[in-house]
Design a protein that fits this description.
Number of helices: 21
Protein name: Acyl-coenzyme A oxidase
Radius of gyration: 27 Å
CATH topology of one domain: Butyryl-CoA Dehydrogenase, subunit A, domain 2
CATH superfamily of one domain: Butyryl-CoA Dehydrogenase, subunit A, domain 2
Family: Belongs to the acyl-CoA oxidase family.
GO cellular component, one term: peroxisome
Bound molecules: ligand FFI, flavin-adenine dinucleotide
Pathway: Lipid metabolism; peroxisomal fatty acid beta-oxidation
Cofactor: FAD
Shape: globular
Length: 661
């Protein structure tokens, strides 16, 4: 599509784009993280979208379960080959964002890239990396991360798979003792992978040392047949991600060499002696790494959905605002703006907090290299909180965008259903959100109770700021609104701690008291993480060196985000006195003004996300707005339309219709 050729474009969209009052390319660079990154993303995307190998012969939704898997594996393999062939040497982990949309509905190599390779990097010592890293990066071996079992996903300490050390032959014996110990869910495990990292309870010298990672060959490297002592299969259709072969795995006293235990952090020596890690949760490092990656991935899903919904809302006309006048664009309805524009604001919130979290992760990783684990708990808390809020915000945002497109949003060809199923899974995987938020709450209560002790953890230092509990602000700058979020979080933490303490004082055991307060504790964790997101949003926009137009747009989006979330949880702000009922009413009014200010810029802002049509894959969201023709053309692809009268008519309908004669 030639974006300079207005003649091919829907007139509403032409008019929308003429209203643009900022530099779109500049905003694109901010979204990508700099000009160089924009150029790199475009280069990769060009490479992919001009390649006919990535086209599907028929829409995926008409394919059988097996064909979907095979088709997506074909494209995934081609993608890996193509990127490997590039002279510039692409780093697939750096470029993962640019690939969004090229592979549809999950792909069988996703966990190889996003967990197996990172697990080797983060958990294997240098000799082990020497042995497996190069091979896995060159795709000579394909792996997955097999942790979850039929009986336990959340409770990692409760895993049942055993790795028992046998010092006589220096081997571990992997065993699945019960049906509930069957590994269940790992992506690519069913048919694709020939290796995996298995999390199993480590037993040596008669003692259990808890879950540890082991690298295990699953299939013969020549024939791809599963090895003796290993049972493998696929778990069947899911809500989404059906091109992936999520699998199951059982071990029958399967032996692996001692050196297959990933030994960067803890070791089992030849004689069976266990050597402790620096921190006993370092074996959870792969999960933490991926949680950080998920925040960025969620912002991308939301960019897709909101691009579709915004463009469609500009093209779609319905009903009337002024009686008797032509039907307006649905984007002119305030209620439609309230659905779509806060989701645009949310995209930037997620981008900026993902970047901030990545920086923290890099500095914690650097410290870990020097043996310093002091900031690991803070990273665990922040990555858990942001993974939880980003996945639930993005899932809800995508669903709102789908609803905002009315009936057509329910069509597969809108690409909204698949965007939704590809996002909502992140609420569950890599740590179910409630569980992760309760980890954040645990950290908050612990931090609150250790006020006065220097921990170096900056994200919770505000908990010591007791004076702010008394001071509600009378100004409404963005900074003041962020302070209100802080006050709300602090007050919820104080309330939860007091409630916990009271129950303990009344004689309850701490863990019962904890469960009894857990709805409130969940709220604390959400409020704390929301405060973090708001603070990063405000600080990033405030310090941004940008042209006036771009800065104004981002300031408005940031303010909308702050007010939107205050109105969603206004009870918490009222309860702690951070805001009065009158303040809330004024802010609600201002939110509507902001929707009106941002409405004329909405199409241009989503244009700045710069998602090529080929990747957006939506009849409703294409750049030219030629929605109705595309919907019609897609409908014609239905196999039912191959004949005027389907066979099923003769088999079932005709006999029914004639039976009463
Ligand atoms: C060039 C290379 C670059 C590389 C770049 C790489 C880029 C990567 C790119 C990525 C792209 C993304 C694209 C998306 C694709 C994704 C596909 C994914 C598919 C999905 C995969 C999965 O789905 S895979 C399974 C995930 N399955 C879980 O996620 C289980 C949750 N369950 C738990 O995670 C534990 O079960 C749970 C609850 C903590 C309790 O653990 P537990 O019982 O052992 O611990 P307790 O609760 O008793 O807590 C005791 C104390 O440990 C503290 N603590 C706990 N964890 C800690 C930790 N990690 N660090 C520090 N401290 C920790 C805690 O804070 C307490 O501290 P304190 O005592 O001081 O209060
Ligand atoms: C699409 C997809 C891909 C996946 N890929 C992989 C993979 O590659 N590798 C892998 O190992 N796993 C994978 N998983 C598994 C995933 O990590 C687990 O499903 C996830 O960790 C949740 O665990 P669970 O299913 O046991 O849920 P459960 O823990 O049984 O959760 C059920 C309910 O119980 C609640 N609950 C549980 N514990 C607590 C608690 N302590 N406090 C309060 N409430 C609690 C939860 O909040 C939830 O409401 C995948 C899952 C999905 C959906």
């Amino acid at each position: 599509m030639d974006k300079n050729n207005e003649r091919e474009c829907n007139e509403d969209l032409i008019r929308e784009r003429r209203k643009c009052n900022f530099n779109i390319e500049e905003l694109t660079n901010i979204v990508d993280g700099g000009k160089a990154r924009t150029a790199r993303r475009r280069e990769i995307q060009r490479l992919l979208i001009n390649d006919p190998e990535f086209l599907d012969e028929i829409p995926q939704d008409y394919m059988s379960h097996e064909d979907r898997y095979s088709n997506e594996l074909r494209k995934s393999a081609h993608l890996m080959q193509k990127l490997a062939d590039q002279e510039s040497g692409h780093d697939i982990h750096q470029d993962i964002g640019a690939l969004t949309g090229i592979l549809k509905d999950g792909n069988p190599l996703m966990v190889h890239l996003s967990m197996f390779i990172p697990a080797i990097l983060g958990q294997a010592n240098s000799e082990q990396q020497e042995k497996w890293l190069g091979r896995s990066l060159r795709n000579e071996i394909i792996g997955t991360y097999a942790q979850t079992e039929l009986g336990h996903g959340t409770f990692v300490r409760g895993l049942e798979t055993r790795a028992t050390y046998d010092p006589t032959v220096e081997e571990f014996v992997l065993h699945t003792p019960t049906i509930t110990a069957t590994k269940w869910w790992p992506g690519g495990l069913g048919k694709t992978c020939n290796y995996c990292v298995v999390m199993a309870q480590l037993y040596t010298q008669g003692r259990c040392y808890g879950p540890h990672p082991f690298i295990v060959q699953l299939r013969d490297e020549e024939t791809h047949r599963s090895l003796p002592g290993i049972t493998l299969g696929e778990i069947g259709p899911r809500l989404g991600l059906n091109s992936n072969d999520n699998g199951f795995l059982k071990f029958e006293n399967h032996r692996i060499p001692r050196t297959n235990m990933l030994m960067k952090h803890s070791q089992v020596l030849k004689d069976g002696t266990y050597v402790k890690p620096l921190h006993n949760k370092l074996s959870y490092g792969t999960m933490m790494l991926v949680r950080v990656g998920i925040v960025g991935a969620c912002s991308r899903s939301l960019q897709y959905a909101v691009t579709i919904a915004t463009r469609y809302s500009a093209v779609r006309h319905q009903s009337e605002i002024v009686p008797g006048q032509p039907e307006p664009q649905i984007l002119d309805y305030q209620t439609q703006q309230y659905k779509v524009i806060p989701q645009i604001a949310s995209v930037f919130a997620l981008i900026f907090s993902a970047r901030s979290l990545s920086k923290i992760q890099s500095s914690v990783t650097a410290k870990l290299k020097d043996g310093n684990t002091d900031l690991l708990p803070e990273l665990h808390s922040l990555s858990s909180g942001l993974k939880a809020l980003s996945s639930s915000d993005a899932s809800w945002g995508v669903e709102v965008c789908r609803l905002a497109c009315g009936g057509h949003g329910y069509l597969a060809s809108s690409n909204l259903p698949r965007t939704y199923t590809g996002t909502t899974c992140a609420i569950t995987y890599e740590g179910e959100n409630t569980v992760l938020l309760l980890q954040v709450a645990r950290y908050l209560i612990k931090s609150y109770r250790s006020i006065g002790k220097e921990t170096g953890a900056s994200s919770v230092s505000y908990l010591a700021d007791q004076t702010s509990l008394a001071s509600s602000s009378s100004s409404f700058s963005n900074k003041a609104l962020v302070q209100a979020f802080k006050l709300s979080a602090l007050s919820l933490v104080a309330e939860a701690e007091a409630r916990l303490q009271k129950l303990c004082d009344m004689g309850q055991e701490f863990y019962h008291a904890w469960n009894y307060c857990s709805v409130l504790l969940l709220k604390c964790a959400e409020a704390h993480t929301r405060y973090y997101i708001c603070e990063k949003y405000e600080q990033t926009v405030d310090s941004l060196k940008a042209s006036e137009g771009v800065k104004n747009v981002l300031q408005s989006l940031c303010r909308l985000y702050l007010i939107y979330h205050i109105t969603l949880t206004h009870g918490d702000f009222l309860k702690c006195g951070a805001l009065t009922p009158r303040n809330i009413a004024v802010l609600e009014g201002e939110m509507c003004d902001l929707l009106a200010v941002l409405r004329p810029q909405a199409v241009s802002i989503v244009d700045a996300f710069d998602i090529p049509d080929e990747l957006l894959g939506s009849t409703l969201g294409c750049w030219d707005g030629n929605v109705y023709q595309r919907l019609y053309d897609e409908a014609l692809k239905s196999p039912l339309n191959k004949t005027d009268v389907p066979d099923a008519y003769y088999k079932y309908l005709l006999p029914l219709m004639k039976s009463s004669l």
